Fold this protein.
Amino acid sequence: MNTIILDAGKKENIMLCAEAIKSGNLVAIPTETVYGLGANALNEKAVSAIFATKGRQADNPLIVHVASPSDAKPLVSSVPPCFDMIVDMFWPGPLTLVMKKSAIIPSIVSAGLDTVAIRVPNHPAALALIRSSGCPIAAPSANLSGSPSPTKAVHVNNDIGGKIKYILDGGDCKVGVESTVLDISDGTLRILRPGGVTLGEIKKLLQTVELDDGTSSSVRSPGMKYRHYATKAPIKALLGSPSETAEYIKRNINGNTAALMFDDFSFNHPNIVTFGASEDHVAQASKLFDALRELDSMDVSAIFAQIPKEDGLGMAVANRIRKAASGKIISLVFCPGTG
Ligand code: TXA
Ligand code: MG
């Protein structure tokens, strides 16, 4: 199939893509977080094509995108009491809410769970497409399963070009990491995935939120157990102060290794890709996935990565780097008494 990249700023392109969604086809869509691979959430056949195109496991449910909070209500069996307060604050935006699903949601979307994940994206083209399609749009990130999420139309084209008809090009995704997934389906509010809305922002509104790091025996967010953001060469994430980890990289980098570094601690070496200053978590989030893809294009045997402090948006950035490293952490933190 010939994939056509369309300017998301043009109304006729939104209409063309809305027709494609209505007739059960897939469209890659820009959002403020990452590009999504969208289909009519109420059309089981179209949704199954999402899983096939990405190579996604059938037990990993999808996020359903709607244009307004009121459009979310028919998709859930009961609206939690905190719903209005949360969506007044965060929608449209990078927060996904997990709630008990209604019968309208096909079980392929929720991967057999009794809940559904929903968000209103903060991107004019995504909202225009949902409205013009006249249906909720199920969309996981538009990468091949396992690879870094796409933050540019070209990333989508590199991963699944030739498999879908249209990519709506809305430019670079501003936030750059995926939405925060917040489970409000029972009495306890839990963050299942840190993301574009920070724990601090949520805590300002709801004091009682818990953080579920995905390591408990009952995995609440099925997606968290899979390998993510993988590069061909293994990533070794470095734990320590920026100057300690930069020193480590200086000692260990060579022609056969590469490094992901903060702008203010990097040095001149052809295999270094930077992703913003050490304290600038907003820049780190927006550049991370593009940087991982650039590192992945290098012919190296290992990639060292600096990890930001886990405050604010740094928590989501650090989470993605740890996942990319799939647990390979080198700790440079000095522990008194260990010699
Ligand atoms: O920012 C985003 O969230 C992007 C854009 C396109 O909206 N989408 C995205 O989708 O990151 P995806 O499929 O790559 O990640 C969705 C995550 C997965 O970890 C999945 O397991 C979880 O949300 N999820 C979806 N439905 C769920 C549910 N009912 N209960 C728990 N977790 C759920
Ligand atoms: Mg994804």
User: Anything to note?
Assistant: The first strand starts at residue 4 and ends at 7.
